[in-house]
Amino acid sequence: MSKRIILFFIGLIFFSGFNLARADVVINEVQVLPTGEKFLELYNTGGSSVDLTDWQIKKKTESGLESTLVSKVRLEGKSIPAGGYFLIANETSYTGQGTLNASWPPSNTGVASNNTVLLYRNEELINRFGWGEASDCQNPCPPNPTTGQSLQKVSGSWVVALPTPGASNESSSSFTAPSGTGSLNNENSSTQTTATSQINNKTTEQPKIKTQITGKILAFVGMPIELEGNAFGYSGEKLYSGKYFWNFGDGDSREVKANDIGQFVHTYFYAGEYVVTLEYYLNHYGNVPDASDKMAVKVVPAEILISRVGDEKDFFVELSNNTDYNADLSKWFLLSNGKSFTIPRNTILEPKKKMIISSKLTSFSVEDKNTLKLMTPQGEIAFDYSASTIPAKVVIAKNKIPAQVSINQDKNKNLDEIQNLVPADNLGASVIESDVTTNNFNSYLLMIASVIFIGVSAGAVYFLRQKKTISNTGDDFKILDE
Q: Where is the PKD domain (predicted)?
């Protein structure tokens, strides 16, 4: 009997500890706008690493439709260290800060307004969080975060603040939900105390001035990238005094007044990875920055092009992304003969993919073919279709006809030599050009021969006339002796 009791308590302790370990992983932060920066962050509040094998994340829409956000396969073999963060976002189109630990597939729209996120382990619900007008949310739901803000769990409550993907959360907020909102009732109270204590420890740091860079982390060679910098005071307020110093990592820099700051563009002319740094000086004449931020920008060759167009019956325009990265074509436009068509926002062209735009949308016709261009939002030419269709330079083969070779053999040799010198696509044009040149050459020879003949004839006449003896006066008379 005593053995059974001992085994019972051992099993109870084991499974209790197991349940506590499962509850240590919580949903910690969510951002839904802008599209390229939406993410989901998990946090391990416990004192040991948690293996995420057999875990999965689902989402539920406002209407109650549930679907998989991150499958078990994508979490297989991954873990969260004690007190660590786990950042999840779109696999290919995420442009925000931080390094992804896992991702949802590119075809998935990710988290959005009025959603609920559900965290499962072996089909058992561990944690959930809903916002806005979500159908599955413990009231009151925190509001949908606005563009550029996120919902963060701080001291057991949900707040709206500047996003901190993969890092400790902000302490400022515009909404505070009651303690426990978004958590399951079966979470152990001691776990809640531990989580609250750890979160408090990381948010009790002294207030300080902060600065933030906003911009895309992927750019194309020769195409402007939009950047923006902001500084925030001790209470999170935006600062408009002082100055900023930008270093773009490519040898270029700029200094601007804080009240003049806003979106601007910078162009990288070579592929590579660059670190953009931003320093903020509260005193315009200061030499030591009060805050700084940095962002890595990857620059790749600009291989976004007009790959094909239609004919007079259907003058479509085909765009191709020949890069290995998603291309955001929002607000790019097609231009020809004073007419333009703007590509709508949130148009993402995936790597090695094409898109065809109908002439019914662009109002272009075949007359626009020779002046068709693809332009960036800043008005820079990304691709000039007319320049890409200039015929290749024709290489004319100079053929020598060997002695005692038949005419047919000579023609075959000429064709073989031309094929070796001219690409197959231009073969017909090359052969025709070669024939024309040969005929012209024969004409030139005939003309030169005629000129030589006339010159020689004239010279001969002149020479003969010079040799002729001219009789003197009186030679025609004979003197007779008387």
A: 244-278
